[in-house]
């Protein structure tokens, strides 16, 4: 990997970590964070973190009914955010857990809520 690509990946990781921190601190919505993620990223740590954040959105009802699950998910995302914010690669087990989603785009098909829903529907289709 070239030095320039490595620097780009580190900056993308830091941005992803910051976006997740903002969601956990309730400074922005999950949707806003997902839309702000860097586009056309090859770094598997950034891709995995994007999909982990998608799961936060998808698990909204479960989180409301199971406080322990919500707390565990928040801790999981906080650990991801901290690792990325340092510019480090996520552990293999986390990157591997989201591997089947990597071919999906990290941005909506088109701007706005309709695009977000289209991307999210693709995500749910692959999850089955």
Quick structural gist:
By secondary structure, the chain is mostly helical.
How many beta-strand runs?
A: 0
Q: Which spans of ≥5 residues are poorly predicted at pLDDT below 50?
A: none
Terminal residue distance: 34 Å
User: What best-fitting shape do the alpha-carbon axes yield?
Assistant: globular
Radius of gyration from the alpha-carbon trace, in angstroms: 14 Å
The fraction of residues in strands falls at under 5%
H/E element sequence: HHHHHHH
Number of domains: 1
- Derived from helix and strand composition plus strand pairing, the structural class reads mainly alpha
What is the helix tally?
7
| Biggest beta sheet summary | none
Mean pLDDT: 86
Question: Percent of residues in helical segments?
Answer: over 70%
Can you lay out the helices and strands and say which pair or pack?
Layout: H1 3-24, H2 30-36, H3 44-58, H4 60-65, H5 67-85, H6 92-97, H7 113-127
Helix pairs in contact: 1-2, 1-3, 1-5, 3-5
């Amino acid at each position: 990997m070239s030095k320039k690509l490595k620097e780009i990946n580190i900056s993308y990781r830091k941005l992803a970590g910051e976006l997740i921190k903002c969601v956990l601190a309730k400074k922005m919505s999950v949707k806003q964070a997902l839309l702000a993620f860097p586009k056309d990223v090859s770094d598997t740590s950034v891709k995995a973190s994007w999909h982990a954040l998608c799961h936060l959105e998808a698990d909204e009802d479960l989180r409301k009914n199971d406080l322990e699950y919500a707390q565990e998910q928040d801790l999981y995302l906080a650990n991801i955010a901290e690792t990325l914010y340092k510019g480090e690669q996520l552990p293999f087990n986390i990157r591997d857990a989201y591997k089947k989603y990597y071919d999906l785009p990290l941005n909506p098909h088109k701007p706005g809520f309709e695009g977000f829903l289209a991307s999210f529907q693709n995500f749910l289709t692959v999850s089955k």
